[in-house]
Predict the structure.
Amino acid sequence: MLYKSYRKASLTQLLSEKDKQDLMALGKRHEYRERKMLFRRGDPGDCLYILHNGEVNISVASSDGREIILNRLSPGEAFGEIAMFDRGTRTADAYVLKNSTLISIEREDFFRFLGKRPELNASCYQLLCARLRWCSDLLEDFLFNDALERMVRNLVAYSEKHDILVNSVIEITQEDLGKMTGASRELVNRNLQLLQDKGLLYIQRKRIIIPDIVALRKIIGVRSNGSAVPVMASDTRRKVKRRD
């Protein structure tokens, strides 16, 4: 899932630069090739990961093999904290999208790190609250937004997440964009063509170019104040004069 709210719900976004570097120094460095599975839903959650470079997808799959991509992580983001905190199992799959470098930090090392910095406990509470808000936003989007809106929200959020408001280039396939918005590839293509016809974006092979994020945001009133812009797994509504 390509949105700003999850980045705010990442542990590394709540740490100072020094604390982040001290935490990473406790970890082990790993090099993974494209499509490497890091963990699956239900696996033990004995460590957290920090993405140093590359990209990682967080996803879930149905019993019949359909995949929904919940988030696409960028360098500097952490994941896997929740299962490490509550000693539960992983709640989703995580796999490397392209060749990547990650830092893994074991649970025991992380809690020793926290024990020496009790002031960081507040950051952990803040993280958990941010995740609850994220889940609430997911539900809201599922109930009130259609496939076109969810797609635009993803595209806008990805660009804002990387602080690119002009000539944003998003490397993503239409198939993956469909997995992020709960739409078929055909529906994604129709909606992209609709936006391209309006001059709001340009479609290329495995990439989308957005000349002006502000103009794209205006068509559905996507919030630009840092509030969540999530997507969900399926589209249950139809809107008049929308291609969905």
